[in-house]
Amino acid sequence: MRKLPLISFIFPLLAISLTQPGYALSDSGNTRSVVILEPATSTYTLPESKRDLPLVKLASSPMSGKVNNEFTTTFAQFILELDDNARKIGGTDTPCTEIFDDKTILFLSNEDGGFARRGFWFLADPQTQPTYCDLLYVDMTVSESELNNGGFIEIFAHETAHVILQRLVGKIENAPSSRFHNVFAITDYQTAFDEGFGIYFQTLTALLANHSGQQQRLQGRFSPSLADQWFSRIDGRQRIFDVMHNRLVFARYVDQQSTTERVYAQEGMSSAFRSELLNAQAMHSSEGVLATLFYRLATDPSLAALTPSDSDWYAKAVAHHTHLFKLISSLDLRSDNLPPWLQLLEQLKLQGSALAVPAAISYLHTTYARSADRELSAKLQQLIMAGHSGDLKGFMAHYGESNQAILSIAQQWHNENRSLATELGRPLWLLAEAIKIPSAPWSAQQLPLTINLNMATANELAMLPQLSANDIAALLSERTANGPYNSMLELSQRLNLDEIKYQSLKSLAQAHQQALTKPSSGNYK
Question: Whole-number mean pLDDT of the chain?
């Protein structure tokens, strides 16, 4: 996760008072330490192939001492223990020097933001040649204000989650979408799972960290500022509140009178929601929705139910996440056949876990059965519309029946009698090299446009010159009525596209596939 320019992330929401005795440090004596690094200089010439990696030394600045104090808290110790467990499960560390053995590494860099990185040059002594260390670490800037207001532990938890995920499944490269990722955007399965995992750890911070400065922010007890209207602050607030309350399953409101390019950008950043649900692929491509799924898996009373007031919350949380990490290590995050979250549910079922059915029920409720049952999801959409407009009769007409249907679907899935992915389909990605979009609204860097035809909105489709307004209307209505398209050929047949349009779209699909398979192409992000 990178902090957006100018303003640090701030996450106000309704806070939870966490003053229970369970927040004292464990007396087990197993206190974990973190290795803190800072930039270094050396007269030695580094190999050209790795010259762009940071040159570091053990930190000794006053700021590093203040940062180190943050790791004496129970929640920080919990994050370090999770990283250690992920290291044991993934086995991805390589030898460097004994200083780093079985340690979480934090580099206090000069580059704005927070990142999960791999590889650095370590300068143990100014008179010796630096040693290359092929290790995962968190790279972030830290300020006095972030230490005081809890921003540091939120960002550290988020970035450590990315480190953990890389330990478990490796680096996620060549993600399909080129859209600027944030909590409101719809990108792709891989990005959403990766970033959703990190955002979930931020949400855990709000639940478990008991940081007094953070609590003041979460309760909105700080001086009002016009800077609160900057996007990063809005994104930061909603990373917690909207995740906890499952708001990110809804489509975004945009100004339809604006230009096509501007509306495209708005859809990827708008914090204003409509009452219409995203479709199944879009939900699985939303980092906010994935964060909600992780959060509910941990806190739903029928599942792990991590509760801050429990004196043994620490042990329960470690056990829950160790199990979760083992599940994640078996996932194929690069597959388009089945999104990672549905793979995870299948793993629970395969294990014969008692959590399988409750987890499936939680998934169906969170996603309003979008991927599992078209008819039920349509009824749930009607329930939502009635509820949002205060129509009690319309709301109750679907309430009890829909609850029972969700329970039935979960049980049938568990008994191998149905799939949770019946209405999901596969992504149909296009790459339009000639159409450029900013990597971020404030960035001069331009990226080629990528679009998934099975979740694209009318505004996204309007970016493609190959499709007329009538084509777009037909694509959307046919997709809604009869489900996602299984191939480019099927899409062409269902829409009665002429051969020229079909071949043009097919060439964009082939361009996207070729870009994903190029080893040197890197991640669009």
Answer: 90
